[in-house]
Amino acid sequence: MLYWMHREHRARDNWALQHAHAEAARLGAPLAVVWCLASSFLGATIRQFGFLLRGMEETRRHLAAAGIPLVVLRGNPPEEVVGYARSVHAALVVTDFDVLRVKRAWLASAARGLAGFCPLHEVDGRNVVPCRVASPKREYAARTLRPKIHRLLPEFLTPLPPLPSAPSVPWTLPVPEVDWASLRDNLAVDRTVAEVGPLPGIPDIAPGEDAARAALDDFIRARLHRYHLRNDPNADGVSGLSPYLHFGMLSAQRAALAAQAHGEAPDDCRASFLEELIVRRELADNFCLHAQDYDAVTCFPDWARATLDKHRGDPRPALYDHAQLDAARTEDPLWNAAQIEMVVTGRMHGYLRMYWAKQILLWSPTPEDAVRTAVTLNDRYFLDGRDSNGYTGIAWSAGGVHDRPWGERPVQGTIRSMTYNGARSKFDVGAYIRRMQALRGGEGEQGEQGELFTFAMGGL
């Protein structure tokens, strides 16, 4: 019995592993987890690969404590997993659900390779309500998916069982030792984007499921009661859990149960967090599953494509090429600061991620250029890039996905706008910029009217 882990990188609170364990017990078969390190993945750098590998090293220890070996493969994942399954005469392969095109192709390839040999079971351990159960179609907006999710929560938002004790039939086939440091050091990926580490004034984010649970506990205890301040980048009101949820080091179901049980937090804070954690995240998986062009203008709704086409010839307030955007060399000090936060820390406050993407639309020759640039930067720098939530956020920001038409403006037409002055009315923009300036070691200061803010850009 094999569990092919590729999205839910954890031993605990893992429904696919639970299913594989149960099937192993039913068939009286030994169980192993197989994981394949691909040589590249959607523009990921050593920042993302390093975070994942360090987390997997810990997950191997948790699996070993449960009597389950981790078999590490390298190469093309479906090809390597199918080959290994055939070599050990697997009776069943269980694997993770994923909506991204590359993962859908992996699963389709594995299904073909295993056809006539053994079944392949796909288990949705990402969503509280499984994506295909929640809705069989692309949902128009959160308001259309929300009632379907809420109707099913009593069935699916239930206590998570512990991982059972060691399988009754031990795994006796050889499992090669893994030199994790060597695996990381010899990986042929882009190393110009550094792994993230402790930074002055920035909470550390260590990889692994233990760190993920500690981060969840810290958020529930210290910040859930301030979740109503989540749109203020200076208020420290957000969860900070996104990288752990992206890499599958934390179960969304575990996070939802923890928030539900924390009676000391105001009801509105708990409700808002559960809305973001369940409805909004599951809306993103729904969108990417049913719109496999999720990272292209063609996924935008008809009204959005029409309004963008109408304004294709509009003069842009500025035009910046990819290198200028990458280096945060624009005349918008808030955007520059957000870009620096992403480049240096691998994260960006959620409100600013929307502003960031919308400004790229205004500064690009075409909507197609804007989407390509936003996706490239998203996947290169964010720890939680290459994810349905990031792609859906870009599609919402630049193309009105899950939104409606607003007042018409140049370039963006009736796509909802977000402006510098609008941000100033919501939070202390200058304080945020100064924090990013201190983080990067830059020089210069933003004036009241938002003059050009300069950073020391060495090493970017």
Automatic annotation (TrEMBL):
Domain Photolyase/cryptochrome alpha/beta: 1-131
UniProt keyword Lyase present: no
Spans through the membrane: 32-53
Entries under InterPro entries matching the protein: Crypto/Photolyase_FAD-like_sf, Crypto/Photolyase_N_sf, DNA_photolyase_2_CS, DNA_photolyase_N, Photolyase_Class-2, Rossmann-like_a/b/a_fold
PROSITE patterns for this protein: DNA_PHOTOLYASES_2_1 (PS01083), PHR_CRY_ALPHA_BETA (PS51645)
Family annotation (SUPFAM superfamilies): Cryptochrome/photolyase FAD-binding domain, Cryptochrome/photolyase, N-terminal domain
Alphabetic keyword roster: Membrane, Transmembrane, Transmembrane helix
Cofactors: (6R)-5,10-methylene-5,6,7,8-tetrahydrofolate
UniProt protein name: Deoxyribodipyrimidine photolyase
Lineage start: Bacteria, Pseudomonadati, Thermodesulfobacteriota, Desulfovibrionia, Desulfovibrionales
